[in-house]
């Protein structure tokens, strides 16, 4: 069978001692650097990219892939331990992961993330091996109108991210949308909300915003009430999952993997949506949705699996069409181009050893990550026992370095500081930042695709409804909106009747 | 002791910064090459290759610093504001030098030839005119023009963003041929590519490395190249200029220094950079990357920036592309 011989070729390539070594180095460096707050996969790969220039193309790619997984996992670690999501995907992990950490279950949260990611990685590797070329065509089915409909669906789902007031969640989403408008308009290049500051012409940087609102805001909160933290520190134990917990995380991991693998194929932000989508789905399916946002293990398991599956299937458009679906993939294309290889339609047939070697190394890399990280969990968790007086200045320093390193821009550090104050204000007002961040991420994509669709339709909006895929997605969005609103309407009715 | 040597170093650095002394001693410390784009792009690759060569020849480290953001404005601005001592250089592109100052108007933080001193142009990145063959029946440039004239505003052309050479190439084409298409900007070429492959947008001018694999696979058809002469990657591919005389819409890169940098320094650098660009290995590597290597003098590079600024200013004004 073709698949078997292809995978055999792949494993023969990736399991050579030489490549195994680079896979290990990649996963190790990725984890170590990624665990520094604010240093997500993009910054980590950009920093380590020059190292790969002298390597064989296969080894370079394998190492970069290792860094990618490692850094992504490292980002989840900081999200769970200190509420610092350095990547858009780990915003969701922070929601329940950090709450688990505060309840002394940091080890369990980290183990869930590692195991969920590994499972998702294994399944998606097989998925890519089986279906990569045909799936590439799915990516082409999605034009601007379809992406617009998908973003609408995403925004509606984001309402479920909030565990408190619906009105406040809506307000946060809208505020996030507005923050997303800062910068030069893609269509007219007109500067919006930049106050003539050239530093804002590219918009607010996500990492600065997320780390400010979450990380710095959290530090201010903790300093205000020091006794809250000592609780978390006192009971750190219980690193491994119990059998009951294993059973609890199995369905979310399976669903998350499925969602991530499919959404990850879409180059225009699919992988990004997968962890949010998975969280929303788990919360809807859960018997006690009230637990979400207060340390539900499903809220870590689902999104972490989805995020890893999505990260991996986002290789599909890159390898089969030469389309990088995110900045990390763009860096990888850059690395390949340096070696004189342009990924594209003929990549799989022209360079089978490279393609299958990379596919096999995805699994090897994920395995290494688990082997590497399960023992490290104990060390990470002990980090929490460091007295807060020493920990928080270190977090601030590393955050500032991390934010600075993304664009070498001091303005971004100032944005982070400002957003820290803003995050504290949000906390005082009982407003949750997660819907804000999702609005911030989805808003620009929503606007861009809406306006692009309208240009393509030459101003005829009815065409949204005549395209089957777009109409279906918008239909699902409408149904979800009704489902989200219904309990509220009935609850309000109850209140009304009581009076 | 330690403090004294530190003070001595500081003094030496301060003196080194004075232009008069720099002539003979340059370079006496590490030189920073600012690339106003993120790591891994073509500009970054050229900068790193050149840095390695300069380091070997001039005996001091040449460090590449990537300052992305704002379409490269932040990175170029840093060089504009740096001391004119030859220790901060820029590797910038067409859009940084010949488009942005016009496009973004009076509030823009620099004017290229007032604030920067050209050293050498090092590359041309040819744009090619491609179409989606399922959507457009034309197979050569004259047929395309006829098709566009018969179907005004029906064809959408995708670009990597408003004000990029890919966008301005399309505007220039419309203005010179009297045709009409709708411009659809994207955030970067790779975001546009899926829609070009699926036929959502039907036509584009974009870089060879991005498009060539899809032209080879038959998904897209290349009609012409937007350089003045035919290019080595395909001598059979005509130029747009063969049908539309004088048509030129390419991206290029070059090294620059702050405006007041002494001639002795920029000339020295230009000589080294030109020598490097003429090495057979460099030429081979550049061609692999889909670029045409260039080795020009400061005067030639200045002329290029001037003439392209004039051309794009005209296109921007006629096309009413300016934001305000």
UniProtKB/TrEMBL annotation, chain A:
The keyword Flavoprotein does not apply. Residues 20-438 form the DUF112 domain. Keywords: Membrane, Transmembrane, Transmembrane helix. It holds the Pfam family TctA. Signal peptide: none annotated. The chain crosses the membrane at residues 45-69, 109-132, 152-182, 323-342, 354-381, 387-406, 469-489. Coiled coil: none annotated. The keyword Membrane applies. This is DUF112 domain-containing protein. It comes from Azorhizobium oxalatiphilum. The lineage of its organism: Bacteria, Pseudomonadati, Pseudomonadota, Alphaproteobacteria, Hyphomicrobiales.
Automatic annotation (TrEMBL), chain B:
CDD domains: PBP2_Bug27. InterPro entries: BUG, Bug_dom1. It holds the Pfam family TctC. Residues 1-22 form the signal peptide. Keywords: Signal. Belongs to the UPF0065 (bug) family. This is MFS transporter.
